[in-house]
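Protein modeling request. Please complete all fields; requests missing the sequence field cannot be processed.
Requester role: graduate student
Desired output: 3D structure, token encoding
Chains: 1
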Amino acid sequence: MSGFSTARQKMVDGQVRTSDVTDARILDAMLAVPREAFVPESKRALAYLDLDLDVSEGGATKRYLIKPAVMAKMLQAAEINSTDRILVVGCATGYAAAVVARLAGEVFATESEPALADQAKVALAGTGAANVTVRAAPAPKGDVADAPFDVIFLNGATEIVPQELYEQLREGGRLVGVFALSQPQRAAIVTHTHGDFGHRPLFDAVAPLLPGLERLPAFVF
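Delivered output (221 residues):
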């Protein structure tokens, strides 16, 4: 077993399984997807650590792969089916989209930094994720052209209510992400039922904010 394969197994066994992730499909997907392929070469030694990993390499905006356990727990809560159409918002270099691609039928991913979106396309193609379409787009806008979606996954945190994303959920659809509308931050699931949106907290979690989903500064007299 190679060094990265060993590290991947340790990540799943030591970080993901111990966080009450029991969905075998998610565990298998995370064992299969080489996380190091979505990390700059200079940081590949950090690919399997329990941290939010900066993959922006000096870009104007910091972009991250969120902690593996936080990602896995949110994916488990979303209850993704093999026929679902999924939107990954803020995909960075594409790791979350690659994992989701092994769970769902069709995956769309957006990234606000065009250079990172291009990197994601290359990394996803290199790992055989043929059912993923990546677009450069601001996080709050989602992907209107390909909506509606069964699941929307936020690859980061939001300080605002992302109403435009809610409206891209089909009836019965779910949105999962880390909500920093108040403290403490919590991962939560939003469900679209009978034209309304229900919000349910899942677990305490902290994740880097997605560009465009920050709270506007309050006006001071």
